[in-house]
Amino acid sequence: MVERESLIEIVVSVGAVFLMLAAMFAIGSSYGAANSTLSPQGGQMLVWVIVGFILLMTAVGVALAYMLNNSDGNVSA
């Protein structure tokens, strides 16, 4: 059976990935041209989504590390 902490990490990480994929799909739908290329504005938006994803995953990692640690500094088992 999967431990509680591992399950929380998996759910949060998969949720963040789905959020990024949804944003990428929305950008592709909104800024895509007729010949299946991405407009320059769409490319910039895509770069910002990737930067946002990196920052989001950093924040999630720090938050999970803080929340899943015991008060004595040891990782909970």
TrEMBL record:
The organism's place on the tree of life at top rank: Archaea
Transmembrane region positions? 7-33, 45-68
- InterPro entries associated with the record: DUF7472
Q: Enumerate the Pfam families for this protein.
A: DUF7472
Q: Which keywords does this chain's UniProt record carry?
A: Membrane, Transmembrane, Transmembrane helix
Protein name, per record: Uncharacterized protein
Organism listed in the record: Natrinema hispanicum
